[in-house]
Amino acid sequence: MKRSPKSLLAVAGVATAGILALPAMAATPATISEVGDAGGDVVPSCPSPPCKAIPRTTGYQVKVGDARAVDVVQADGRIVAWTITLSKPGPKQTAFFNQNLGGEAQAQLTILRPGHKLYARVIAQGEPVKLTPYFGQKTTFALQKSIPVKKGYIIGITVPTWAPALSLGQPGTTSWRASRGKGECNNFDTQSAQTSTNNVTRFYCLYRTARLAYSATIVADPKPAS
Question: What residue range is the signal peptide (predicted)?
Answer without folding.
Answer: 1-26
